[in-house]
Amino acid sequence: MSQPTARKLTPEPRHETAAETIQRLRSRVAELESLTQALEQESREKSLYLASMSHEMKAPLNAINGFAELLADTSYGTLDPEQQRFVSRIAEAGQHLLGLINDVIDIARIDAGRLEVAPQPVRINRAIEQVALICRGLARDYDVSLRFDPDPADPLVLADDRRLKQVLFNLISNAAKYSHAGSVVRVQAGAENGHVRVSITDQGVGIRPEDRDRIFEPFERTDAAMRMADGAGLGLPLSRRLVELQGGEMGVDSKPGEGSTFWFTLPVARETDTPAQDALQVAQSSPAQYAD
Ligand code: ADP
Is ligand 1 within 6 A of the CB of residue 99? Predict the structure, then answer.
């Protein structure tokens, strides 16, 4: 005897029509978009808070630096050699801290969308020569020779002069800092496909493939670099952000133990644009202006 068929108590669920699926997905996308916007806004506000807080720290620090300078100035009385040494340590540490705070402020301002750059046509050869001149003493301290092969075409790059030099200073000083004594750091520049590409090649400690992305994040350093020199891990993240803000890209090629090439691109300027005023004369420049 055949079993009686069980009666269905719940109705068969109705399948969603294509139009309903599209509608449901659209509203989900809209929800995700507004969530992303809210998170971005929150992140911008945090960056702005960090920038303002760091800015507030500059006032007392400037007072410390100013008074350290006054103490070192013999017209206010003389110090014995040990006191002079202590005062110069205060002044050095103060300048170092000021550089770090300035970098934190810059990174936070970029992340908050509040840092403005003023791109103008700049002769790349001249910018590199000026920064190389400033870096020569530092390179000498690490017993590294610094070479620059100027591009005979001397391309004009569209960049904010001060920010371009800040990036160059960070990359060239890193190359010297993470190099072995007696080695060479080479700076090259040339135009290709509407961009000027600048590369800084060292024969230093190198970077392992697994470290190549993270070193562009704030406060990230490699073990090999930490064994060689002090640092805060702010120069590269700031440099990459500055380059991107000016329409370029930054990256690194490296062989661990053999050396690295840090490179960046910036748009080529048109010959018809007015060249930038040479805003920063070498004589007025000090490493502290660019240092991280
Ligand atoms: P800092 O040099 O103060 O640590 P940076 O942000 O400039 O900070 O660099 C981040 C890290 O990237 C360095 O600590 C180092 O690990 C690595 N790095 C940067 N430049 C080089 C280089 N030329 N050779 C090897 N490692 C480098």
Answer: no
